[in-house]
Protein backbone atom coordinates (compact mmCIF):
# COMPACT_ATOMS: atom_id res chain seq x y z
CA UNK A 1 0.00 0.00 0.00
CA UNK A 2 2.87 2.35 0.83
CA UNK A 3 4.29 1.85 -2.67
CA UNK A 4 0.86 2.55 -4.16
CA UNK A 5 0.59 5.79 -2.18
CA UNK A 6 4.02 6.86 -3.38
CA UNK A 7 3.03 6.13 -6.99
CA UNK A 8 -0.09 8.27 -6.65
CA UNK A 9 1.92 11.11 -5.09
CA UNK A 10 4.37 10.97 -8.00
CA UNK A 11 1.51 11.10 -10.50
CA UNK A 12 0.00 14.10 -8.73
CA UNK A 13 3.34 15.94 -8.68
CA UNK A 14 4.00 15.13 -12.34
CA UNK A 15 0.54 16.24 -13.41
CA UNK A 16 0.86 19.50 -11.47
CA UNK A 17 4.10 20.29 -13.31
CA UNK A 18 2.47 19.50 -16.65
CA UNK A 19 -0.50 21.70 -15.76
CA UNK A 20 1.82 24.57 -14.88
CA UNK A 21 3.56 24.23 -18.26
CA UNK A 22 0.30 24.13 -20.24
CA UNK A 23 -1.07 27.07 -18.25
CA UNK A 24 2.06 29.09 -19.07
CA UNK A 25 1.76 28.13 -22.74
CA UNK A 26 -1.89 29.18 -22.69
CA UNK A 27 -0.94 32.60 -21.35
CA UNK A 28 1.82 32.99 -23.97
CA UNK A 29 -0.51 31.99 -26.81
CA UNK A 30 -3.17 34.36 -25.49
CA UNK A 31 -0.68 37.24 -25.48
CA UNK A 32 0.40 36.41 -29.05
CA UNK A 33 -3.25 36.21 -30.12
CA UNK A 34 -3.95 39.65 -28.70
CA UNK A 35 -0.85 41.09 -30.38
CA UNK A 36 -1.56 39.66 -33.83
CA UNK A 37 -5.22 40.72 -33.69
CA UNK A 38 -4.07 44.32 -33.22
CA UNK A 39 -1.55 43.95 -36.05
CA UNK A 40 -4.20 42.48 -38.33
CA UNK A 41 -6.53 45.39 -37.57
CA UNK A 42 -3.85 47.88 -38.59
CA UNK A 43 -3.09 45.89 -41.74
CA UNK A 44 -6.74 46.06 -42.83
CA UNK A 45 -6.41 49.84 -43.18
CA UNK A 46 -3.61 49.37 -45.72
CA UNK A 47 -5.38 46.51 -47.53
CA UNK A 48 -8.57 48.55 -47.88
CA UNK A 49 -6.67 51.50 -49.34
CA UNK A 50 -4.76 49.37 -51.85
CA UNK A 51 -7.99 47.71 -52.97
CA UNK A 52 -9.63 51.11 -53.36
CA UNK A 53 -6.79 52.40 -55.56
CA UNK A 54 -6.67 49.26 -57.71
CA UNK A 55 -10.44 49.23 -58.15
CA UNK A 56 -10.43 52.90 -59.16
CA UNK A 57 -7.66 52.30 -61.69
CA UNK A 58 -9.49 49.31 -63.11
CA UNK A 59 -12.68 51.36 -63.33
CA UNK A 60 -10.82 54.12 -65.14
CA UNK A 61 -9.45 51.61 -67.66
CA UNK A 62 -12.87 50.09 -68.23
CA UNK A 63 -14.34 53.54 -68.75
CA UNK A 64 -11.57 54.30 -71.25
CA UNK A 65 -12.37 51.09 -73.15
CA UNK A 66 -16.09 51.93 -73.25
CA UNK A 67 -15.38 55.41 -74.62
CA UNK A 68 -13.05 54.01 -77.27
CA UNK A 69 -15.68 51.52 -78.36
CA UNK A 70 -18.41 54.16 -78.51
CA UNK A 71 -16.20 56.55 -80.47
CA UNK A 72 -14.93 54.12 -83.09
CA UNK A 73 -17.82 51.73 -83.49
CA UNK A 74 -15.25 49.02 -84.24
CA UNK A 75 -14.37 46.88 -81.27
CA UNK A 76 -11.12 45.58 -82.81
CA UNK A 77 -9.93 49.09 -83.52
CA UNK A 78 -11.09 50.23 -80.12
CA UNK A 79 -8.99 47.61 -78.38
CA UNK A 80 -5.81 48.59 -80.19
CA UNK A 81 -3.26 49.79 -77.65
CA UNK A 82 -5.39 48.63 -74.73
CA UNK A 83 -3.56 46.01 -72.69
CA UNK A 84 -5.08 44.12 -69.80
CA UNK A 85 -2.75 43.86 -66.79
CA UNK A 86 -1.12 40.42 -66.54
CA UNK A 87 -2.45 39.62 -63.07
CA UNK A 88 -6.00 40.31 -64.25
CA UNK A 89 -5.81 38.06 -67.30
CA UNK A 90 -7.89 34.91 -67.17
CA UNK A 91 -6.06 32.18 -69.08
CA UNK A 92 -6.86 28.50 -69.73
CA UNK A 93 -6.18 26.56 -66.55
CA UNK A 94 -3.71 23.79 -67.20
CA UNK A 95 -2.27 23.72 -63.70
CA UNK A 96 -3.54 24.97 -60.35
CA UNK A 97 -1.32 26.15 -57.52
CA UNK A 98 -2.29 25.75 -53.86
CA UNK A 99 -0.57 27.86 -51.22
CA UNK A 100 -1.26 25.84 -48.06
CA UNK A 101 -0.61 27.53 -44.71
CA UNK A 102 -0.04 25.32 -41.64
CA UNK A 103 1.95 25.68 -38.43
CA UNK A 104 5.58 24.72 -37.82
CA UNK A 105 4.82 23.06 -34.51
CA UNK A 106 2.18 20.99 -32.75
CA UNK A 107 0.14 21.66 -29.62
CA UNK A 108 -2.50 23.50 -31.65
CA UNK A 109 -5.37 21.04 -31.37
CA UNK A 110 -7.00 20.12 -34.67
CA UNK A 111 -5.72 23.21 -36.49
CA UNK A 112 -3.39 21.40 -38.90
CA UNK A 113 -5.45 18.25 -39.36
CA UNK A 114 -8.47 20.32 -40.45
CA UNK A 115 -6.45 22.04 -43.19
CA UNK A 116 -4.68 18.92 -44.46
CA UNK A 117 -7.82 16.80 -44.48
CA UNK A 118 -9.70 19.47 -46.45
CA UNK A 119 -6.78 19.83 -48.88
CA UNK A 120 -6.60 16.11 -49.64
CA UNK A 121 -10.34 16.02 -50.24
CA UNK A 122 -10.13 19.06 -52.53
CA UNK A 123 -7.33 17.49 -54.58
CA UNK A 124 -9.25 14.23 -54.83
CA UNK A 125 -12.43 16.00 -56.00
CA UNK A 126 -10.90 18.51 -58.43
CA UNK A 127 -7.95 16.73 -60.03
CA UNK A 128 -7.50 13.48 -61.89
CA UNK A 129 -3.74 13.69 -62.35
CA UNK A 130 -0.82 15.02 -60.28
CA UNK A 131 0.18 17.06 -63.32
CA UNK A 132 -2.87 19.27 -62.79
CA UNK A 133 -1.69 20.88 -59.56
CA UNK A 134 1.29 21.86 -57.44
CA UNK A 135 1.59 22.84 -53.79
CA UNK A 136 3.36 25.73 -52.11
CA UNK A 137 3.65 24.87 -48.42
CA UNK A 138 4.04 27.51 -45.73
CA UNK A 139 4.74 25.74 -42.44
CA UNK A 140 6.71 22.63 -41.61
CA UNK A 141 3.70 20.47 -40.73
CA UNK A 142 2.16 20.82 -44.18
CA UNK A 143 5.48 20.48 -46.01
CA UNK A 144 6.32 17.22 -44.21
CA UNK A 145 2.78 15.92 -44.75
CA UNK A 146 2.83 16.47 -48.52
CA UNK A 147 6.39 15.17 -48.90
CA UNK A 148 5.49 11.96 -47.08
CA UNK A 149 2.68 11.37 -49.59
CA UNK A 150 4.77 12.12 -52.64
CA UNK A 151 2.74 15.15 -53.77
CA UNK A 152 4.20 17.83 -56.06
CA UNK A 153 5.75 20.32 -53.63
CA UNK A 154 6.94 23.24 -55.75
CA UNK A 155 7.94 25.47 -52.83
CA UNK A 156 8.16 25.34 -49.06
CA UNK A 157 8.82 27.92 -46.38
CA UNK A 158 9.38 27.23 -42.69
CA UNK A 159 9.81 29.43 -39.68
CA UNK A 160 7.16 32.14 -40.07
CA UNK A 161 7.27 34.10 -36.81
CA UNK A 162 4.34 34.19 -34.41
CA UNK A 163 3.51 37.78 -35.39
CA UNK A 164 4.79 38.03 -38.98
CA UNK A 165 5.74 41.25 -40.71
CA UNK A 166 5.47 41.88 -44.44
CA UNK A 167 9.25 42.10 -44.81
CA UNK A 168 9.57 38.67 -43.24
CA UNK A 169 7.12 36.94 -45.61
CA UNK A 170 8.05 39.01 -48.67
CA UNK A 171 9.86 35.99 -50.13
CA UNK A 172 6.68 33.91 -49.93
CA UNK A 173 4.36 36.41 -51.58
CA UNK A 174 6.85 37.45 -54.26
CA UNK A 175 7.60 33.82 -55.11
CA UNK A 176 3.88 33.03 -55.50
CA UNK A 177 3.26 36.06 -57.74
CA UNK A 178 6.39 35.38 -59.81
CA UNK A 179 5.48 31.71 -60.32
CA UNK A 180 2.03 32.71 -61.56
CA UNK A 181 3.42 35.43 -63.79
CA UNK A 182 5.96 33.01 -65.32
CA UNK A 183 3.33 30.36 -66.01
CA UNK A 184 4.26 27.72 -63.42
CA UNK A 185 0.52 27.59 -62.67
CA UNK A 186 -2.48 29.36 -64.18
CA UNK A 187 -4.41 30.07 -60.99
CA UNK A 188 -3.52 30.22 -57.31
CA UNK A 189 -5.66 29.31 -54.31
CA UNK A 190 -4.58 30.17 -50.78
CA UNK A 191 -5.79 27.48 -48.36
CA UNK A 192 -5.79 28.08 -44.61
CA UNK A 193 -7.88 28.23 -41.45
CA UNK A 194 -9.77 31.52 -41.20
CA UNK A 195 -10.00 33.02 -37.72
CA UNK A 196 -13.66 33.45 -36.78
CA UNK A 197 -13.28 33.98 -33.03
CA UNK A 198 -11.20 32.67 -30.14
CA UNK A 199 -12.99 29.32 -30.19
CA UNK A 200 -13.80 28.86 -33.86
CA UNK A 201 -11.94 28.73 -37.16
CA UNK A 202 -13.08 27.66 -40.63
CA UNK A 203 -11.18 26.26 -43.59
CA UNK A 204 -10.91 28.61 -46.55
CA UNK A 205 -9.66 28.17 -50.11
CA UNK A 206 -9.56 31.63 -51.69
CA UNK A 207 -8.65 32.29 -55.31
CA UNK A 208 -5.92 34.92 -55.23
CA UNK A 209 -4.56 34.83 -58.78
CA UNK A 210 -5.55 35.90 -61.31
CA UNK A 211 -7.18 38.79 -59.45
CA UNK A 212 -10.91 38.47 -60.06
CA UNK A 213 -12.57 39.95 -56.98
CA UNK A 214 -12.45 43.61 -58.04
CA UNK A 215 -15.97 44.98 -58.23
CA UNK A 216 -16.11 48.13 -60.33
CA UNK A 217 -19.56 48.87 -58.92
CA UNK A 218 -17.85 49.69 -55.61
CA UNK A 219 -16.46 52.84 -57.20
CA UNK A 220 -18.78 55.73 -56.40
CA UNK A 221 -17.47 58.07 -59.11
CA UNK A 222 -16.29 56.33 -62.28
CA UNK A 223 -15.55 59.63 -64.04
CA UNK A 224 -12.28 60.12 -62.21
CA UNK A 225 -9.58 61.61 -64.42
CA UNK A 226 -6.24 60.20 -63.25
CA UNK A 227 -2.99 61.99 -64.01
CA UNK A 228 -0.49 59.13 -64.28
CA UNK A 229 3.11 58.81 -65.32
CA UNK A 230 3.96 57.15 -67.59
CA UNK A 231 0.39 55.88 -68.27
CA UNK A 232 -2.51 54.17 -66.44
CA UNK A 233 -1.62 50.73 -67.80
CA UNK A 234 1.93 50.94 -66.46
CA UNK A 235 0.71 52.18 -63.06
CA UNK A 236 -1.82 49.36 -62.84
CA UNK A 237 0.85 46.81 -63.81
CA UNK A 238 3.04 48.17 -61.00
CA UNK A 239 0.40 48.26 -58.29
CA UNK A 240 -1.37 44.98 -59.02
CA UNK A 241 1.52 42.83 -57.70
CA UNK A 242 1.41 44.87 -54.48
CA UNK A 243 -2.30 44.21 -54.22
CA UNK A 244 -1.81 40.47 -54.83
CA UNK A 245 0.98 40.42 -52.25
CA UNK A 246 -1.25 42.19 -49.73
CA UNK A 247 -3.95 39.54 -50.23
CA UNK A 248 -1.52 36.68 -49.62
CA UNK A 249 0.04 38.44 -46.62
CA UNK A 250 -3.44 39.03 -45.21
CA UNK A 251 -4.17 35.31 -45.49
CA UNK A 252 -0.95 34.47 -43.63
CA UNK A 253 -1.88 36.93 -40.87
CA UNK A 254 -5.37 35.41 -40.67
CA UNK A 255 -3.95 31.88 -40.53
CA UNK A 256 -1.49 32.82 -37.77
CA UNK A 257 -4.31 34.40 -35.78
CA UNK A 258 -6.31 31.17 -36.06
CA UNK A 259 -3.21 29.18 -35.05
CA UNK A 260 -2.72 31.19 -31.84
CA UNK A 261 -6.42 30.91 -31.03
CA UNK A 262 -6.24 27.13 -31.54
CA UNK A 263 -3.12 26.92 -29.37
CA UNK A 264 -4.76 28.96 -26.61
CA UNK A 265 -7.84 26.73 -26.67
CA UNK A 266 -5.78 23.52 -26.76
CA UNK A 267 -3.60 24.59 -23.84
CA UNK A 268 -6.63 25.67 -21.81
CA UNK A 269 -8.20 22.27 -22.43
CA UNK A 270 -4.95 20.54 -21.42
CA UNK A 271 -4.74 22.63 -18.22
CA UNK A 272 -8.36 21.84 -17.34
CA UNK A 273 -7.75 18.14 -17.95
CA UNK A 274 -4.66 18.25 -15.73
CA UNK A 275 -6.64 19.89 -12.93
CA UNK A 276 -9.40 17.26 -13.27
CA UNK A 277 -6.83 14.47 -13.15
CA UNK A 278 -5.21 15.99 -10.06
CA UNK A 279 -8.60 16.11 -8.35
CA UNK A 280 -9.30 12.46 -9.15
CA UNK A 281 -5.82 11.35 -8.07
CA UNK A 282 -6.15 13.33 -4.84
CA UNK A 283 -9.41 11.55 -4.02
CA UNK A 284 -7.80 8.20 -4.81
CA UNK A 285 -4.79 9.09 -2.67
CA UNK A 286 -6.92 10.16 0.31
CA UNK A 287 -9.00 7.01 0.11
CA UNK A 288 -5.92 4.79 -0.09
CA UNK A 289 -4.30 6.68 2.80
CA UNK A 290 -7.49 6.38 4.86
CA UNK A 291 -7.64 2.64 4.14
CA UNK A 292 -3.98 2.26 5.15
CA UNK A 293 -4.56 4.11 8.44
CA UNK A 294 -7.66 2.05 9.15
CA UNK A 295 -5.69 -1.14 8.52
CA UNK A 296 -2.90 -0.01 10.84
CA UNK A 297 -5.38 0.87 13.61
CA UNK A 298 -7.09 -2.49 13.22
CA UNK A 299 -3.75 -4.29 13.48
CA UNK A 300 -2.76 -2.30 16.58
CA UNK A 301 -6.08 -2.99 18.28
CA UNK A 302 -5.87 -6.67 17.34
CA UNK A 303 -2.35 -6.88 18.73
CA UNK A 304 -3.38 -5.19 21.98
CA UNK A 305 -6.31 -7.57 22.42
CA UNK A 306 -4.02 -10.52 21.87
CA UNK A 307 -1.80 -9.39 24.77
CA UNK A 308 -4.66 -9.27 27.24
From TrEMBL:
The keyword Ion transport applies. CDD domains: F1-ATPase_gamma. Coiled coil: none annotated. It is a peripheral membrane protein. Keywords: ATP synthesis, Cell membrane, CF(1), Hydrogen ion transport, Ion transport, Membrane, Transport. Its main location: membrane. It is found in: Cell membrane; Membrane. It comes from the Bacteria. NCBIfam families: ATPsyn_F1gamma, PRK05621.2-1. Belongs to the ATPase gamma chain family. Produces ATP from ADP in the presence of a proton gradient across the membrane. The gamma chain is believed to be important in regulating ATPase activity and the flow of protons through the CF(0) complex. PANTHER family: ATP SYNTHASE GAMMA CHAIN, ATP SYNTHASE SUBUNIT GAMMA, MITOCHONDRIAL. F-type ATPases have 2 components, CF(1) - the catalytic core - and CF(0) - the membrane proton channel. CF(1) has five subunits: alpha(3), beta(3), gamma(1), delta(1), epsilon(1). CF(0) has three main subunits: a, b and c. This is ATP synthase gamma chain. The gene is atpG.
Amino acid sequence: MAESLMDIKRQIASTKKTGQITQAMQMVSGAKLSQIEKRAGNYQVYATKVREIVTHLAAAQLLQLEKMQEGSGNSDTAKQGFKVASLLQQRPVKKTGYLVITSDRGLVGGYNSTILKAMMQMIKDDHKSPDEYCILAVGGTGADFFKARGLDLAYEYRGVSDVPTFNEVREIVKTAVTMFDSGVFDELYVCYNHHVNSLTSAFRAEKMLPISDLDVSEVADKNIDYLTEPDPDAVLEAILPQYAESLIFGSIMDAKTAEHAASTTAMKSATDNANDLISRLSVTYNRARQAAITTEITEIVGGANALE
